[in-house]
Amino acid sequence: MTTSTSEREELIRAEAAALGFDLCRFTDIDEAWPAAARLLEFVDAGRHGEMGWMAETAERRRHPRAMWADARSAIVLGVNYGPDDDPMAVLAQPARGAISVYARGDDYHEVIKARLKALGRWLQARFGGELKVFVDTAPLLEKPLAERAGVGWQGRHTNLVSREFGSWLFLGSILTTLELTPDAPESMTCGTCRACLDVCPTDAFPAPFQLDARRCISYLTIELKGPIPREFRPALGNRIYGCDDCLAVCPWNKFAQQGREQKLAAREALNAPALADLARLDDPAFRDLFRKNPVKRIGRDRFVRNVLYAIGNSGVANLTTEAERLLDDPSPLVRGAAVWALSQCLAPEAFATLRAVRTPAEADTSVLEEWGG
After folding, report:
1. Domain boundaries, the chain
2. What is the mean pLDDT of the chain?
3. For the whole prediction, is pTM greater than 0.85?
4. Active site positions, annotated
5. Which end is more exposed in the chain, N or C (fewer Cβ atoms within 10 Å of the end residue's Cβ)?
6. CB atoms near residue 173 (< 10 Å)
């Protein structure tokens, strides 16, 4: 028995929902891809910082068919990860760390990819054709693709906004050789709102719809390998992995809880964890805490660096001992961050005394720079 085009799309949507996707939309990929020009402008301006892979894969990102010449349609899928509480409430708890909402549970790349592969197997068995699946680790511009498919629109913060789920959507895509009936594109519906721009602690948006990643706290705490520039450290507050501010203030988020199922639950241990506990993590303990979690990829040293900056911003006296203990850490990155934390926590006289004791035995130039030497 043959299946009409409209029936086919509805069957795909139903299967996607059964696999845990909250949204499923379709688009063709025949037209020009203006998003490629915006990416090149971003890279040419150096706003990608140390993310060299963005420049290296720019050619493959210029159009979905640059990824796969045989593709004819795209299925764009979304999973709502809206939090159950206010993700900015932890910012008022200086002795605790703020981990971005998306990174509080299992690694969404693995969760989404498994669902995409399951949908792909079903799709091929039911309708044939060839396909490839993508999560955001692949050089495919998913947000513009999602906009064309009607999943949402790119807001002034450059993130995708959905009428149904606000700024809280994980995206996954399937490119296929099948000809699928496209959904209508979504138009930008932010009105005059600029809350996402105004809330940014580091002024990372040079203009609406433009991001300078070099100033973004998510980039600084996740992608940047060395010490975070001094000018940005106070603005980090207690954000130790990522930043949700521009997402959390979006007015469209009020719809994100409607009909939500807890398919991607946060781990209790990662909801506002104590900085003192995190500062004590050695490498095995770090790997155990963040097993199957996206935080694991930045490694223990970079993570503890972030924790120490948060300690320096905390104003909590009993955290000073944690920073002082880490002056003996094997990692220069950690030691340097510990020095900065102590420079913020100790009285100038106490810091000067500690510097006189510590600097003669310190051989790393980056750490000595933190001491002011």
Report:
1. 5-83+98-176, 200-205+215-248+274-371
2. 90
3. yes
4. 136
5. N
6. 26
